[in-house]
Amino acid sequence: MFSSVECVRALCRQRGVPISTLESDCGFANGYLNPKKLKKLPYDRAVKIAGYLDVPVEYLLTGEGAKKAPLPEEEHRDAVEEMKAAFWGGEQDFSQEDWDEMWADVADFAKFRAEQQRKRRNGNTT
């Protein structure tokens, strides 16, 4: 049986990317990609990981398709825009500048929370 988590772990091994780095950079908890606890990635997480590893989402979810073929730039941009719309409940009455600003805020918050988690994990609560 295909495991999308094992697929991600294999890609990370091939590319020399530590799982902990991928988890941190994507804003996931340490140990999230544990194949003993998680076999199939939720779609939103698969999209994020696919973007990070530059592979098609379908490959992560099904194991089919070219594992190293990146999405064409236009398709990737469209996918990101769809994620942004989904993130805000489908609201699409924003200018491109609004989208970019809000998305930057989301990315900053994800980095902030990841740093908090790292500090907490290392016993540093300051």
Explain the overall architecture:
This protein is an all-alpha fold. The chain folds into 2 domains: 4-62, 434 Repressor (Amino-terminal Domain) (Orthogonal Bundle); 73-121, no CATH class. Helix content is 61%, strand content 0%. It has 6 helices and no strands. The longest helix has 26 residues, at 96-121.
Question: What's the shape?
Answer: globular
Low-confidence stretches: none
Proportion of residues in helical segments: 55-70%
Structural class: mainly alpha
What do we call the CATH homologous superfamily of the largest domain?
A: lambda repressor-like DNA-binding domains
Tally the helices: 6
For the largest beta-sheet, the strand count, sense and barrel status come to: none
Following the backbone from N to C, one meets helices and strands in this order, namely HHHHHH
Kindly give the count of domains: 2
Percent strand equals: under 5%
> What is the CATH class name of the largest domain?
Mainly Alpha
- CATH second-level architecture of the largest domain: Orthogonal Bundle
CATH fold-level assignment of the largest domain: 434 Repressor (Amino-terminal Domain)
User: Cα distance, first to last residue?
Assistant: 44 Å
Q: What is the arithmetic mean of pLDDT?
A: 81
Sum this structure up briefly.
The protein is mainly α.
